[in-house]
Amino acid sequence: MPWSETFGVVGLGRMARALLLPLLDSGLVERSAVRAAVATEASAQTLAGELGLQVSTDAARAWSAPVVLLAVKPQQIEAVAPAAAQALSAAAPAHEPLLISVLAGVPLWRLQALFPGRACVRAVPNTPALVRSGLTGLSWGEGVGEARRGEVRQLFAQVGEVLELPEPQLDPFLALTSSGPAFLALVAESMADGAVAAGLPRPLASHLAHRTMAGTAALLQGQELHPGELKDMVTSPAGTTAAGLRELERAGLRSALIEAVLAAAERSRQLA
Ligand SMILES: NC(=O)C1=CN([C@@H]2O[C@H](COP(=O)(O)OP(=O)(O)OC[C@H]3O[C@@H](n4cnc5c(N)ncnc54)[C@H](OP(=O)(O)O)[C@@H]3O)[C@@H](O)[C@H]2O)C=CC1
Ligand SMILES: O=C(O)[C@@H]1CCC=N1
C-alpha cells in the first residue's frame, strides 16, 4: 500500500537518493507525495528535472510533512533546525510527527533537543539500498508509537535488511556497513589493478573483480561458512592462493581493515 501522507526529505544527496529511488520505484512512496529540500537552487533544479520530484530550497515545505527523512551532513544539522521548528508551529500539529535521521554519529538525545515536538528515529542505512541490497540499523527515540515503528520498518525493508539495535551499537554498525562499501570497493579496485598488472584488459579485470566479490559473499552466506573455512577451501598446498595470502599477511591487510573499521566507528562517535 502506498505511503498515505506527504513525505518530507531534507537533504537529497547520495544517501537520500539511494533510499528514495527504490521507494519510488516500488510505489511505496508516490512522487507526488515527496516534498524535498536541498541547499542550493542549482541542485534543486537538477534533481527536480532528473527525478520528477518537487525539490526546492524552501525547507518549510519539506518540514510541514508529518514524516521527514533528514539526510544533510552531520555538520549541517544546526542550520536546518530553525526551519523545522517554524514549520511545526505554523501548521496544525500532525498526528505523531516523525523525524527519521540518517546522520552519521548524531545521537538521539541531540536530535530530540534540536527537533522538539517530533518523535525521532536514528537510522543507519548504506548505499547498497539503491539496488535493494541495503542494511539499515534502527534505534528508536522517545515516543515513537508502534504504528510509526511499523511504517519505518516497512520503509527500510523495501531496500534491504532491517535490524533494531541499542543505540551504542550504531557507531560500529555504521563503520562496518555504511563505510564498509568504500573499504570493499578499494579491495575490488586493487585486485583489478593486480589483474591489469598481470595482463588482463581493464574492463574485464573490473568485471571479474566485482563478480568474484559478489560470488564470495553469496557463498559465505548461502553455505553459512566461516570465512576461515572458505579461505582453506581455496588454498591448495604450495598453490597460487597460498602465494597471494603470504603477501597479504606480509602487508598487514587484516590489521589495516580492523583499524579502518575502528577509525570509522571512532569518527562516528566524534560526530555526535
Ligand atoms: N553516503 C553514505 O554512504 C551514507 C551517508 N550517511 C549520512 O547521510 C547524510 C547525507 O550524506 P550524503 O548523502 O553522502 O551527503 P551529500 O553531500 O551527498 O548530500 C547532502 C545533501 O544535503 C543538502 N543540504 C545541505 N544543507 C542543507 C540545508 N540547509 N537544507 C536542506 N538541504 C541541505 C545538500 O544540498 P545541495 O546539493 O544543494 O548542497 C545535499 O542534497 C550524512 O549525514 C551522512 O552521515 C549515512 C550512511 C551512509
Ligand atoms: O563517510 C561518511 O561520513 C558517511 C557516513 C557513512 C558513510 N558515509
From TrEMBL:
Pathway: Amino-acid biosynthesis; L-proline biosynthesis; L-proline from L-glutamate 5-semialdehyde: step 1/1. GO terms for molecular function: pyrroline-5-carboxylate reductase activity. The keyword NADP applies. It catalyses: L-proline + NAD(+) = (S)-1-pyrroline-5-carboxylate + NADH + 2 H(+); L-proline + NADP(+) = (S)-1-pyrroline-5-carboxylate + NADPH + 2 H(+). The keyword NADP applies. Pfam families: F420_oxidored (PF03807), P5CR_dimer (PF14748). Residues 7-105 form the Pyrroline-5-carboxylate reductase catalytic N-terminal domain. It comes from the Bacteria. Its EC number is 1.5.1.2. Keywords: Amino-acid biosynthesis, Cytoplasm, NADP, Oxidoreductase, Proline biosynthesis. Signal peptide: none annotated. SUPFAM superfamilies: 6-phosphogluconate dehydrogenase C-terminal domain-like, NAD(P)-binding Rossmann-fold domains. Residues 167-271 form the Pyrroline-5-carboxylate reductase dimerisation domain. It is found in: Cytoplasm. InterPro entries: 6-PGluconate_DH-like_C_sf, NAD(P)-bd_dom_sf, P5C_Rdtase_cat_N, P5CR-like_CS, P5CR_dimer, Pyrroline-COOH_reductase. Belongs to the pyrroline-5-carboxylate reductase family. Catalyzes the reduction of 1-pyrroline-5-carboxylate (PCA) to L-proline. This is Pyrroline-5-carboxylate reductase. It comes from Cyanobium gracile UHCC 0281.
